[in-house]
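seq as requested:
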Amino acid sequence: MQPKTFALCLTAFILIAVIDLIRRQKMSFKYALTWLVLSAGVIFFTIYDAWLRNIAQWAGFALPSNFIFFLLLIFVIFSSLLLTLYINEQNNRTETIAQAIAKLDLRIKQIEEEKKKTTH
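C-alpha cells:
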C-alpha cells in the first residue's frame, strides 16, 4: 500500500469515528472541532502534496516529513494546553459545587437545631 493511500484511509477512519462520536453525543462538537480540522488538513495535504512541500520549504524545512513531525509536535502541545484548561475549568466547577453543598449542609443543620429547640 502506498503511503498516500494509507494516510487517506487512516484519516478517513478517524474522521468517520469522530463524526460518529459527535452523533452519539459521546464527544461535544467543541472538542471534536480540533480533530475535524486536523483530519481535513491531512486529507487536503495528502491530495495536494505539492502544497505541503512548498509550505515546508517556505518554513525552512529541508524535508516535508520533518515539517509534518513538527506540526504533530505543535498539535500535541496545543492539545495538552487545551486539556490543561479543561481540567482547570472542571476543578473550579467542582470546588464551587463542593462549597454550595457545604453551605446547604450547614443550613440544614441550622434548621434541624432550630426545630429541636422549638419542640423541647
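Helices lie at 3-23, 29-47, 49-58, 64-119.
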